[in-house]
Amino acid sequence: MSETIQLISNNFRESPAWFRALNSAWKGTYPMGTEIKLTRDDLIKRAFKATGLNDLGKDFADEPLERLLYSINHEASLHPIGRFITRERFVGLLNIRLRAEYFFKKHPQILEQELYPSWIIIGLQRTGTTKLQRLLAADPDHRVIPSWEVINPIPMNLDLYDLSQGQKGTGSQGHKVTESQGHRGTSYPHPRDKRIAVANTSVTALKLMSPGFFAIHPIDALQPEEDILMLDVSFLSTTPEAMMNVPSYADWLENTDQSAAYAYAAKLLKFLQWINPAKRWVLKTPHHLEFPDLIEKHFGDVHFLWPHRRIYESVPSFLSMVTYNQMIFSNAVDVERIARHWVRKTGYMLDKALDYRLKENNSKRFTDIYYKDLVTDSITEMEKIYRQNGGLTDDLIAKFNKHEEEHPHRKHGVHQYSLADFGLTESDIDDKTQNYQQFINDHYGREQAQKVQ
Hints:
By secondary structure, the chain is mainly alpha-helical. 54% of the residues lie in helices and 6% in strands. α3 packs across α5 (80-106) and α4 runs antiparallel to α12 (247-254).
């Protein structure tokens, strides 16, 4: 292994000095009873107390949370800060469900809506999915979920958005909010809405805990983020296995029907379009590669945008992001363990997506985007997408170009990585992704295949 690669690998194991010191000091007080306990009953009790509500909905199931907590407590080796973050995050997810049920009961018309048509970005991690979504968010007809809203999709102040207020307002994307389509509150978000401030605090905390993370995945409280967090409120998503070592939960999850998570995510999307209307959803998360059938079932009118990138680049890039993630929660971060888990998982996700795509007429539901083209000539890639929507207008092109000028590639620094950082070779990747690589060759020919192989 070269000296450069060794330095990168060492950086995977490097947290800020203050972070290590705090963890060490906190753990030293464990004999005094300071270790945070992660139990279902305690989490739910805290959520009830924080919100003053006590109904998680008739479709809330205990098993996903209990299996996840068992795996965390017995396998994840969380350090003190990791346990604290996990507790606060899980209480927050329960709070979201409590607040959602409050609104669903008070305004039943929310769930009577049809979901907007959706463009679903389902590419692998590190294939330009974030860049693509943020570009599409520049279209005022599109409804995305910015980071501040995906962290807390349901307002923390229950009284701010109420049909009984009697005022008409304007949504954040310039759409009027009418009685039949959306709340009748003030402009969205309301000036007293706490959620943007909460998100900004989270972004600041992440920068302090993991300074190198933003070169991998830039987070901005006002920019769109992955809607996998809509699934997290059912405790059925791959988020935990990206954040920590939870093998028993990950295995159970992969063999469990996740319809309940997608059904509830659809409910949350209905709330979000009720509170801030638009014309089309633009959603994204690599998690959806496993479940295009559930997306079609629960989200309705959908079209999939599938970005592709040379897999020998996308895989180690994602592995480095997972490594930084897991360092925030544990000192027992094993890069080779991470690689074994996620290389296999990557192949599995791709195979699931291909199984769906190659059935009957499903291929017409997909538009392919190529990472290199997206980075070097994004307007051409936008033209491919908008062919199904009447084509690009000069106004949209101007909006996309403005976004590109304000968000240049590698704005937050250069992300360095290699397969060797994780003890991998190209043949290790080939072994798990041969179906996908063959698909690219068969369906797109030599010229296009060279862009992603």
